[in-house]
């Protein structure tokens, strides 16, 4: 069973991955893909905020 730290690390890793995909989707003008990724991004951002993770340094999208 994963502990809180392992869960938080997985969420941070997912958050970073989603941001990379969002940047690529924006560069490729893939609006539908970007919109779908943004929903996941916002969900992960909310979870990380509740977990007390400071997103200042890792949030590249800033939306």
Low-confidence segments, given as residue ranges, are none
Query: Element order, helices and strands?
Result: HH
| Percentage of β-strand residues | under 5%
Rough shape?
elongated
Percentage of residues assigned to helices: 55-70%
SSE class: mainly alpha
Give the biggest beta sheet: none
What is the radius of gyration? 12 Å
Distance between the termini: 33 Å
Q: Can you tell me the number of structural domains?
A: 1
User: What's the number of helices?
Assistant: 2
Overall mean pLDDT? 93
Number of β-strand runs: 0
Which characteristics define this entry?
mainly alpha, single chain, 63 residues
Would you mind describing this structure in some detail?
70% of the residues lie in helices and 0% in strands. It is mainly α. The longest helix is centred in the first third of the chain and has 24 residues, at 4-27.
Lay out the secondary structure.
Blueprint: H1 4-27, H2 31-50
Helix pairs in contact: 1-2
Give a concise summary:
Helix content is 70%, strand content 0%. The chain is mostly helical and 63 residues long. The longest helix has 24 residues, at 4-27.
């Amino acid at each position: 069973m994963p502990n809180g730290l392992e869960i938080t690390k997985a969420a941070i890793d997912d958050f970073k991955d989603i941001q990379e995909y969002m940047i690529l989707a924006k560069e490729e003008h893939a609006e539908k893909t970007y919109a779908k990724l943004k929903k996941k991004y916002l969900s992960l951002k909310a979870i990380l905020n509740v977990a007390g993770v400071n997103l200042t340094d890792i949030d590249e999208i800033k939306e």
